[in-house]
Amino acid sequence: MSNPDTNQPVLELRNVSKTYTVKQGMFGKPKPLKAINDVSLSLKRGEVLGLVGESGCGKSTLAKILLGLEDPTKGEVRVDGEVIGATDRRTLARRIQPIFQDPYSSLNPRKSIEDIISLPLRVHHIGDSNSQDKAVREILDIVGLPQRVMRTYPSQMSGGQRQRVAIARALIMKPEIVICDEPTSALDVSVQSQILNLLNDLRAEFNLTYLFISHDLAVVEHLATRVAVMYLGRIVEESSVGGLFDTSGHPYTQALLKSVLTPEAGKGVPDTELGMEYPNPIAPPSGCHFHPRCPMAMTHCAEIAPRPVPTPEGHVECHLFDTENGYNTGAPLVREAV
Amino acid sequence: MNSPLLRVKDLTIDIPVGGGTLNAVRGIDFDLNRGETLCIVGESGSGKSLTSLALMGLLGGRIKRTATQMEFDGIDLTKANNKTMRALRGDRMAMIFQEPMTSLNPAFTIGNQLMEALLLHRNVGKDAARARAVELLEKVGITAAESRLSQYPHQLSGGLRQRVMIAMALMCEPELIIADEPTTALDVTIQAQILRLLVDLGREMNMAMILITHDLGVVARVADKVAVMYAGELVETGSAEQVFNAPMHPYTRGLLRCIPQPGKTERGARLGTIPGIVPNLVGGVTGCPFRTRCDHAVAACRDAIPHRKPAENHRFRCVHETGHQTAETAV
What we know:
heterodimer; A: alpha/beta; Rossmann fold; 8-stranded mixed sheet; 28% helix; globular; B: alpha/beta; 5-stranded antiparallel sheet; 12 helices
């Protein structure tokens, strides 16, 4: 099943778009909402891609497409070179598994932990009840839960234990790719670090590939090997962790990095210089979608959409880096006073 | 003015539960001066929200609150009746809650909800209240303030709603603001903006602020004073510099090791952990509540725990004189 060729991306998105139609009010005209707008990504085996961005930028829609819960409007998703529209959901589920944010609502409260973890095996008819039981015991060991929890219910467990159950359920199918959608946001600090350590260990042990969606840039910097920054359905910058955090390019990435509150006393709250709020995705701004909030916007940013400019380790979509077309210089954009 | 605006001594909160009494908060002390920001930081269930509700007199009837002293600008809150508390709340002390979606009333306009406190507490007409509402909406950075007054909460984004909540709390120019996780539900970029706004307004109006959060980054950037809460006790208090640069209590140091710190923590390295779980607070709690999870626990941790004072205004509770700080740095 797995391809020994290490250069072959294990997960690849080619020009994927997802457009929803939204109707405003009972008699409103339906309008298109581009949740994902022509996104291409590729992930090699063993990589951790951190996906960051504000709420509403399309992170979760992307996760749903990868899990086969939504079909892309355009473009294709490939796993090990195979287009996944062509394979059925069942095959996909063996290779890509999710871990969700809230361990309180993602586990069925009426099923025992054993039932919850073994459900994927039963759905896919893998082994008999004896081997399924053995597999559950093994996976409990791996995620650091005692065997006695098998007969308990989610309500008897703490948040950290529940998230371990969710990880066990995702890993029992031995997937190649795990989509982690804000896996530690609902947890306390001391529990968060345990789960992050566990995810890191499991990745090394089973050579897993993660798509790690988070709004916490400090966590992404810690765990990810590559980072993609999303804004209004576009990936505006993609790079290796070092490339992004040490020498960030896109003004939006810089604003995100500035807004990280590190626990250093006396530094005060940073000014992100972002000004206004996140735009309405139904009516995205013209030209570069980020120009109304960009502290470095130039006049042509409001008119021309930037193209992806290749960087040593990825790409960035910003006129400031487009020396070829001469878009990198220009008169600063004067905004009307608000 | 020399006496603090708020003085709390030995605040205890007991909640009757099925099998006994939950000792949710056990004997905490703190002072707050005008213009100062106190951050109470702790994990879920540590009692930080209960503490803020106790100050506002908003605990449910079954919950028992005792304190040897709880004074707000000379008013004894332990003896205050409902009428006194109602007169204080929304006027001289105000609260900002975490979830702006659920704490604004969806059936009333923004203007209506903003003006309510002023009309209730002050002898002003509707026009004056309206003008004040517009003034404050502008102050918290909301554009087209006049037209926002007739909008309903669902028409605003999360960041705007939280700004409205802040404006609402400021309507009567309170002397004390209690903000319970005011930015937890917001995006990081909006979080920074809202925190800046709170800090700037607090300074401008010389307000005292109690900020309750679980986010150590927020605490470090905003606080004058920090109180670290664990299982119903303040285990360490001090200035932000003291607590973050020279943390003494093993719990405080443990928390700081748990979070990845850009530039300090090596990428992909193992993060520190605090093993075990928070103790059950039902029934008598004796000794140090952290001893079950502490690397330095000894037999004496079961007995009374001394208060230690390593520096002016810096206090912590631990049987070890230095909180075993030296033992860890040596490793």
